[in-house]
Amino acid sequence: MWQKALRIILLLVVLAPLVSFLSWYFTPKKYLTAAIIDKTVFNTDGQEHISFHWVLNHNRFMKSGSEAYEVERDYFGFFPKKDTAYAIKGIERFPAEALSLLSDDSDMLYITDTYGIYKQEWYANYSKRPGVLYGGLSEKDINFIKQMKAKQKPVIAEFNCLASPTPKPIRAAFEALYHVRFTGWSGRYFDSLDENVNQELPSWILTNYKNNHNGNWPFTKDGVVLVNDDSGTVVILENETHLNNPLPFVYATAAGQERFDLPEKEKYPFWFEIMESDTQVNTTYASYQLATNTAGAQELKKYGIPNTFPAVINHSDSDYDFYYLAGDFSDNPIGFTTSYFKGIGLLKSFFYNAKEPSDRGGFFFNFYKPLVTQILSETYDQM
Predict the structure, then answer these.
(1) Please, is 131 exposed, middle or buried when counting C-beta atoms within 10 Å of its C-beta (0-12, 13-18, 19+)?
(2) What is the DSSP code string of 341-382?
(3) What is the C-alpha separation between 333 and 361, in angstroms, rounded?
(4) Tens digit of pLDDT for each residue in 254-270?
(5) What gap in Å lies between CA 3 and CA 9, rounded to an integer?
(6) Which one, 86, 89, 104, 171, has the greatest CB density within 10 A?
(7) What Cα–Cα distance (Å) separates residue 158 from each residue in 75, 178, 217, 274, 369?
(8) Which CATH code for domain 24-381?
(9) What pLDDT is attached to residue 20?
């Protein structure tokens, strides 16, 4: 009897992936032209936009005819080649007429990252004056955004669109367009603040903090680092010292849970921005919350930083929707291959470690995937 049960189990293990793939393969294709901007691409993996491509592919959205979206080629921005060679294929190269045509042809726009590429990061042992090789929102970008808005086509933008190296006049134009404001503060959770242990702590964060604190860096636990884009000021919230829970969490409103199938609460251990939004014309569907204790609340108060702030902002006008995702939401270390299997969400717990504080897989499957899937579905239905 047990041998028969074992054969059945083995058969199911073999057949399940095949059935899942075939179910995905025979799902009807849908055609949607998404203009994607990513200026922070260090390799062909496309880490900063792979999550969006994953959702497009998983839901069978095609760019044209029978062509699926490809991570390494279907975006506007920085294209790495062998060694230190690269190509720049951004919106900036479009003359006015071509830009207008692009806004006609595009069904939606997603700006995943404009932080860009810096010379000292791209070239090994770069000894000349540091600077931006390519990055920041440009005049052409903001013109394209305005054209998409005028034609009532959805726009999604996320971290890092408004911080450096985006020029302040362009930042102001973007903010006025959608009634949002970047406070200048960004932050991230680090699983260790010990500079002798965690090699992921950026050197400029250590330098900036030490310059203002007599060379001291007394932190050894995990916690949240907050940095001001304009002044370079660094604020540290250490676990237990300033925080009851070191991890930032995103809390969805009742409306966010209903419209986008978002979880009520999900940890978010990566880069985020502290944004302000005009509640008279915008809807906040989810907000960050930092679990500060008394000392942490006092530390934030010194710098005028709130402990609760928007994570998902929606500016809606008639049939038009704009979304600002105040975090590096598209940057998730996921395997693109899993997008070819329908029903993969039923096995999502196998693809991330919920007990690992820095693991972003849970955020992708529980929050990002349903959010973007619903936005794409609504966009397609309104075409």
Answers:
(1) exposed
(2) STTGGGGGGGGS-TT-TT--HHHIIIIIHHHHHHHHHHHHHT
(3) 7
(4) 999 999 999 999 999 99
(5) 10
(6) 171
(7) 15, 13, 31, 12, 15
(8) 3.40.50.880
(9) 87
Q: What is the pTM of this model?
A: 0.94
Instruction: Check residue 363 and give its pLDDT.
Output: 96
Which single residue is written with the structure tokens 């041998």? 3
pLDDT of residue 202: 93
Q: Which residues of the chain have pLDDT under 50?
A: 11
What's residue 333's pLDDT?
87
- Amino acid residing at 248: P
The two structure tokens encoding residue 380: 């397609």
| Residue 184: strand, helix, or coil | strand
Contact 287, 310 (CB under 8 A): yes
The tens digit of pLDDT for each residue in 178-221 reads 999 999 999 999 999 999 999 889 999 999 999 999 999 999 99
What are 149's two structure tokens?
A: 């808005």
Q: What is the pLDDT of residue 108?
A: 97
Q: Residue ranges of the alpha helices (H) in the chain? A: 2-25, 50-58, 96-105, 119-122, 139-150, 168-178, 203-211, 254-260, 294-303, 361-363, 369-381
pLDDT at residue 128, rounded to an integer: 74
Burial of 126 (0-12, 13-18, 19+ CB in 10 A): middle
* pLDDT computed for residue 1 by the predictor: 55
- What is the C-alpha to C-alpha distance for residues 189 and 269, in angstroms, rounded to an integer? 5
Alpha carbon distance 362, 270 (integer Å)? 12
Count of helix runs (H) and strand runs (E) in the chain:
11, 19
| pLDDT value of position 88 | 97
Tokens of 233: 């000021």
From 122, 272, 299, select the one nearest 213 (Cα to Cα). Answer: 299
C-alpha 281 chain-centroid distance: 23
Give the dihedral of Cα atoms 293, 324, 380, 57; nearest 10 deg. -70
